[in-house]
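Hey,
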Amino acid sequence: MIIKNIGRLIGIQDPSVRRLRGREMDDVYCIDNAWLRFYDGVITGFGEMRSCPLNDDMLDAEGGIVIPAFCDSHTHLVWAGDRSGEFVDKIEGKSYEEIAANGGGILNSSDLLNSVSDDELYDAAARRLRQVMAMGTGAIEIKTGYGLTLEGEVKMMRVIERLRAGFPMLEIKATFLGAHAVGRAFAGRQGDYVDHVIADMLPLMAGKADFVDVFCDKGFFTVDETDRILKAAAPYGMLPKIHANELDCSGGVQVGIANGAMSVDHLERIGDEEIRALAASDTVATMLPGASFFLGMPYGSARKAIDAGCVVALASDYNPGSSPSGSMPFVMSLGCIKMKLSPERALNAVSINGAAAMGLSDRCGSISIGKNASFVIYKSYASSLPYIIHAYSEPTIAAVYLKGQRI
């Protein structure tokens, strides 16, 4: 198929580009009045309309812009029930830590998840996946971490595997997050729970989880416990992706980098030391403005990190308690409005660098020959990148293609 009469084809990269660092994020390469060709789910060509080949199967973009599909590198998309009751607690001024201390938060989601069947869990997650696909997401990471029991964590991974099979047009990466919180059965015995994660859970995730994650932060897991889990996961081929510095400067950034983390995520609280360490590494600094918005927390210092030479991505943190939205257009808008990123930096953060945070930038995140034909076509009146970012609530999307399949 050929998409013709594209007003502006945005996000073009050489296929060899895997991530954008620092000021490299300032540019998005474009072609005005363009065409795009794909075959068997892969981009095979693009250029200016004056060089457009004739083809029997052509779609007219009618002057709309085209960007790469979004790459959402941090989600908790598989969960049961809801935590809307905690929403009221937040309105009344209770902090994230207070809600967790009273048995809410992650432990609440764990109770709910362990009470439902695989089918119920799958159906709810599949509904959410369809929603984010319709908003332009073409690659997504999904974590376990609401089981917090051996059976619950294995159940979550089974559901993620079913999602992979049921949604072949999506790139789905799986992360084992057994160390999201201490399971209720181990209350007051955090060390024993860490031993349980290492000895009993990790072996069952081998060959299934692409990544291992730990909530290394104030009130959760320590740097030493995190280091133990990451090192124990390495022989199983699970690369680290760390929850770090959401609640405090926890040392999670440093232990993640020391263990070769693909990314360290959250970073609402980050200092010069962490930024220097990230700038000197290949670890992606993934910031989650949706969580900052919903929880009223500081926004990550994305602009400062980029200026220092870091690889910065933005992701949704889609979850029931602290970021109940998988809208990457909204994430991109928050990146501009609250984090003061340019539209170009915001797009690169949710596309090529989001792909890098999942190890997927060889096939996702840009308009490149040989990469997935996963892209978003906008309506003709949404005529520029700044327009689609500032008008994030408008229904500006005309079509979404994922691996060449129209969604």
